[in-house]
């Protein structure tokens, strides 16, 4: 027995000695104590101007030009109460004025300088979200499809007319029976070798093109997505070559009358975005020249022979959709703009509004209440995080457009799908939070939350349903996970998986799991490691589940059985990318004061997310109970610190009164402005 005790003591000493060699300083960092922490006794000062310059970057001037132009034109500002028809005509006048009076030509930047185009779109969207979407339909969708899916002959013929708004157009993809499943579209384009034409047909009601922007009133052309049908000499008689894009005139250029064979109906009043004239299109044997096939990825010769540089229908379809990711990039970027406006209104109001207080003392700002800070300060931190993430997305998209690198195309496709889905969902929820945070005044239409919420709501659906897009992200992660174990390479955005997957296979470090010092919790390495660990764990576990269930349920059944797990994986990955880009943006900020402000909101973003999913970390002992408690307490304290510089942080968005247009958010004499609205 004595020998056994000796052996246990010796083993314990060896473990202790080994631990000291591995990490000589494994003593816990100082405990979280307000009094002892110098960073808590030093008041943070944020240089708002330097921060704004850093965030706006090189496209600050063009955004200011847009804001100043519309601020000087009351006739182009959208009134609070306006009919659907008047709103549509106003949006058309707003777009004409941008191009023909302000001299801003967005289409010239769609391909050559996407970052500038998206900056214009964000500024335009702050004037009227319907206006921003209408501009996007004209230039991103209709114009983008022509220059991205067509060839030189199409660019030469249509570019100037699209640019100067002579050729107003639509993007006719969605059908009544098919939205997300684009490969299932039923509209047909049958080649007639005798007349050298395509015949566009809507075979049944389910194939009617639906929700087509610019179709109900203003559009003269449509890019129509249809199944290319070629006659053959075999027993089938025809061959279906898959979905292709065709330019189809829908109205007469001079009279604006609907062309023969084209039927157009108005989709009517919508929940929001009523300045956009959405319509439905039916085609009855509409003939178009063979040259109207947008033939970058597939062409038909005069004698009806099909040629393509891509070998399969799936490859061609993927390439076609890959060229259309700009719409998702634009929505992610624009959604951040909406989040900036709503957060600015709610925070400015919360700083102004006073309610209750200590006995016999003045009332306090409602942003001094912890509950209000909990609602709005993590949201402000997230707004900054999403800003830098979408700036990164735009940079990657611009690089993709210049290089056409195949690996980069795949990266941008998944990244745009994930960020569009994640950010638009977050903004949609945040708009309701902001409305509630402003109490009864938030319910007044003049203070904008209702209009913003209604207009933005569809961002979660068009350009790809958010749930479907997250599944694309999950599928891409699983594909790369498989490649990793087959010796394949990982692109930059996914490269962290190589290291963190290996870390996941090991047990969490029981020592670091208990560290709770502020320096440790605010260390970017700890934060990013935690995010990456969670994603890697989810990826590993869902891969095993899919393998198990596919044996009995098949591939489709297994995917459906694991669907919620897959969606959580996709969201976790996107949060990891967002944090990585935020940390990088903090490091690169040249001004020390602005950098300190960014570091504060970055830490709040990271710790708030960790706390929100603390169960995942606790289940595997990645975070011990004492550390979990410290994370929660520090996140609450950081919210308080952000509150102290909230004005500087929202002012750095540079959204002046004429942009926010909410009386309760006016920076000077807000209540006076508000009482004037109701007639006092």
TrEMBL record:
<dbReference type="Pfam" id="PF01756">
    <property type="entry name" value="ACOX"/>
</dbReference>
<dbReference type="InterPro" id="IPR009100">
    <property type="entry name" value="AcylCoA_DH/oxidase_NM_dom_sf"/>
</dbReference>
<dbReference type="InterPro" id="IPR046373">
    <property type="entry name" value="Acyl-CoA_Oxase/DH_mid-dom_sf"/>
</dbReference>
<dbReference type="InterPro" id="IPR012258">
    <property type="entry name" value="Acyl-CoA_oxidase"/>
</dbReference>
<keyword id="KW-0443">Lipid metabolism</keyword>
<dbReference type="Pfam" id="PF02770">
    <property type="entry name" value="Acyl-CoA_dh_M"/>
</dbReference>
<keyword id="KW-0276">Fatty acid metabolism</keyword>
<keyword id="KW-0560">Oxidoreductase</keyword>
<feature type="domain" description="Acyl-CoA oxidase C-alpha1">
    <location>
        <begin position="322"/>
        <end position="477"/>
    </location>
</feature>
<feature type="domain" description="Acyl-CoA oxidase C-terminal">
    <location>
        <begin position="523"/>
        <end position="667"/>
    </location>
</feature>
<feature type="binding site">
    <location>
        <position position="213"/>
    </location>
    <ligand>
        <name>FAD</name>
    </ligand>
</feature>
<comment type="similarity">
    <text>Belongs to the acyl-CoA oxidase family.</text>
</comment>
<dbReference type="GO" id="GO:0005504">
    <property type="term" value="F:fatty acid binding"/>
</dbReference>
<keyword id="KW-0274">FAD</keyword>
<dbReference type="GO" id="GO:0003997">
    <property type="term" value="F:acyl-CoA oxidase activity"/>
</dbReference>
<dbReference type="GO" id="GO:0033540">
    <property type="term" value="P:fatty acid beta-oxidation using acyl-CoA oxidase"/>
</dbReference>
<feature type="active site" description="Proton acceptor">
    <location>
        <position position="463"/>
    </location>
</feature>
<dbReference type="InterPro" id="IPR055060">
    <property type="entry name" value="ACOX_C_alpha1"/>
</dbReference>
<keyword id="KW-0285">Flavoprotein</keyword>
<dbReference type="InterPro" id="IPR036250">
    <property type="entry name" value="AcylCo_DH-like_C"/>
</dbReference>
<dbReference type="GO" id="GO:0005777">
    <property type="term" value="C:peroxisome"/>
</dbReference>
<dbReference type="InterPro" id="IPR002655">
    <property type="entry name" value="Acyl-CoA_oxidase_C"/>
</dbReference>
<keyword id="KW-0809">Transit peptide</keyword>
<dbReference type="GO" id="GO:0050660">
    <property type="term" value="F:flavin adenine dinucleotide binding"/>
</dbReference>
<protein>
    <recommendedName>
        <fullName>Acyl-coenzyme A oxidase</fullName>
    </recommendedName>
</protein>
<feature type="binding site">
    <location>
        <position position="174"/>
    </location>
    <ligand>
        <name>FAD</name>
    </ligand>
</feature>
<keyword id="KW-0576">Peroxisome</keyword>
<dbReference type="Pfam" id="PF22924">
    <property type="entry name" value="ACOX_C_alpha1"/>
</dbReference>
<dbReference type="GO" id="GO:0071949">
    <property type="term" value="F:FAD binding"/>
</dbReference>
<feature type="domain" description="Acyl-CoA oxidase/dehydrogenase middle">
    <location>
        <begin position="170"/>
        <end position="286"/>
    </location>
</feature>
<dbReference type="InterPro" id="IPR034171">
    <property type="entry name" value="ACO"/>
</dbReference>
<dbReference type="InterPro" id="IPR006091">
    <property type="entry name" value="Acyl-CoA_Oxase/DH_mid-dom"/>
</dbReference>
């Amino acid at each position: 027995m004595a020998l056994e005790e000796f052996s246990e003591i010796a083993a314990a000493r060896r473990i202790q000695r080994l631990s000291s060699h591995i990490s000589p300083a494994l003593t816990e960092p100082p405990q979280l104590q307000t009094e002892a922490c110098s960073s808590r006794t030093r008041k943070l000062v944020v240089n708002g101007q330097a921060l704004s310059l850093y965030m706006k970057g090189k496209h600050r001037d063009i955004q200011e030009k847009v804001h100043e132009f519309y601020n000087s034109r009351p006739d182009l500002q959208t009134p609070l109460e306006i009919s659907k028809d008047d709103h549509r005509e106003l949006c058309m006048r707003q777009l004409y004025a941008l191009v023909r009076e302000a001299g801003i030509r967005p289409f010239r930047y769609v391909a050559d300088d996407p970052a500038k185009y998206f900056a214009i779109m964000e500024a335009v969207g702050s004037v009227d979200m319907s206006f921003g979407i209408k501009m996007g339909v004209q230039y991103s969708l209709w114009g983008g499809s022509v220059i991205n899916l067509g060839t030189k002959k199409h660019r030469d013929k249509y570019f100037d007319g699209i640019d100067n708004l002579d050729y107003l157009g639509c993007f006719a993809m969605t059908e009544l029976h098919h939205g997300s499943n684009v490969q299932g579209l039923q509209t047909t384009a049958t080649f007639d070798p005798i007349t050298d034409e395509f015949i566009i047909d809507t075979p049944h009601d389910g194939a009617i093109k639906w929700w087509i922007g610019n179709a109900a009133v203003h559009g003269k052309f449509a890019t129509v997505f249809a199944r290319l049908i070629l006659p053959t000499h075999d027993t089938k008689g025809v061959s279906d070559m898959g979905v292709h894009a065709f330019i189809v005139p829908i109205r007469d250029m001079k009279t604006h009358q609907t062309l023969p064979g084209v039927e157009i109906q108005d989709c009517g009043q919508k929940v929001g975005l009523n300045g956009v004239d959405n319509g439905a299109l039916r085609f009855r044997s509409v003939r178009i020249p063979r040259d109207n096939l947008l033939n970058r990825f597939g062409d038909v010769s005069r004698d009806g022979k099909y040629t393509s540089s891509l070998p399969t229908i799936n490859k061609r379809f993927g390439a076609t959709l890959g060229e259309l990711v700009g719409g998702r990039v634009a929505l992610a970027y624009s959604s951040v703009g909406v989040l900036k406006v709503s957060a600015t209104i709610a925070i400015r109001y919360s700083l102004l509004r006073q309610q209750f207080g200590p006995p016999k003392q003045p009332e306090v700002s409602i942003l001094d209440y912890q509950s209000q800070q909990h609602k709005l300060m993590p949201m402000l931190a997230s707004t900054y995080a999403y800003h830098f993430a979408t700036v990164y997305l735009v940079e990657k998209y611009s690089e993709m457009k210049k290089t056409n690198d195949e690996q980069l195309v795949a990266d941008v496709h998944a990244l745009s799908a994930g960020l569009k889905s994640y950010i638009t969902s977050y903004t949609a929820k945040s708009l309701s939070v902001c409305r509630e945070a402003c109490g009864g005044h938030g319910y007044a239409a003049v203070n904008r939350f209702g209009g913003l919420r209604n207009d933005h709501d569809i961002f979660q659906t068009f350009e790809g349903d958010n749930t479907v897009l997250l599944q694309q992200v999950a599928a891409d992660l699983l594909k790369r996970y498989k490649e990793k174990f087959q010796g394949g390479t990982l692109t930059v955005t996914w490269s962290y998986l190589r290291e963190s997957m290996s870390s996941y296979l090991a047990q969490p470090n029981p020592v670091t799991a208990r560290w709770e010092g502020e320096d440790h919790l605010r260390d970017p390495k700890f934060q990013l490691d935690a995010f990456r660990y969670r994603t890697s764990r989810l990826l590993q576990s869902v891969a095993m589940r899919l393998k198990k269930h596919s044996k009995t349920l098949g591939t489709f059944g297994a995917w459906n059985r694991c669907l919620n797990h897959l969606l959580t994986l996709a969201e976790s990955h996107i949060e990891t990318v967002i944090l990585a880009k935020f940390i990088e943006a903090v490091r690169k900020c040249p001004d020390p004061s602005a950098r300190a402000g960014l570091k504060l909101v970055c830490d709040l973003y990271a710790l708030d997310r960790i706390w929100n999913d603390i169960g995942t970390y606790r289940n595997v002992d990645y975070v011990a109970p004492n550390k979990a408690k410290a994370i929660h307490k520090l996140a609450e304290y950081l919210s308080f610190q952000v509150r102290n510089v909230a004005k500087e942080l929202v002012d750095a968005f540079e959204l002046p009164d004429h942009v926010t247009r909410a009386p309760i958010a006016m920076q000077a004499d807000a209540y006076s402005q508000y009482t004037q609205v109701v007639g006092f």
